[in-house]
Amino acid sequence: MSGLEIERKFLVRGDAYKRQASGSSRIKQGYICSGRGRTVRVRIRDGRGYLTIKGPSDGHGMTRYEFEKEITSGEAEELFKLCEPGVIDKTRYLVSAGRHTFEVDEFYGENTGLVMAEVELGSEDEEFDKPEFIGDEVTGDRRFYNSSLRSYPFSLWGASLPQEYRTGPQE
Question: Is 31 designated active site?
């Protein structure tokens, strides 16, 4: 798949998304390159490997070029050896809302306690239904990019995120 990716990101309140999910999968991902708004990511999801290249985001942080290619899990494991330090480990839940599907990511490791949802759109001004668990929008806030969470994980943020968005045990 390649082309423009238009998505919006939100913080998530509570865990109602788990009861509403039609499915979930565990994801491990690393970054071969994550500088200047361009990323080369390797991912294993449900035993399948993927290589993804993303361009810089537009001014709103909503739209960017994305190229993704499925690779073998063995190729992905080999590419993990080339990745920058830090791995993203998360479970992704799929939650339908109207005509859209929200991807809700519950993070682990150094990002435990952070849960975010994103929705892909056909245009930047496309309307969509928001499930009750959707909180504040963080589209364009680079702290919430997975490539940033790799190098500056949620556990280092201190109390900069309101308690209503924190899940799991907190330090």
Answer: yes
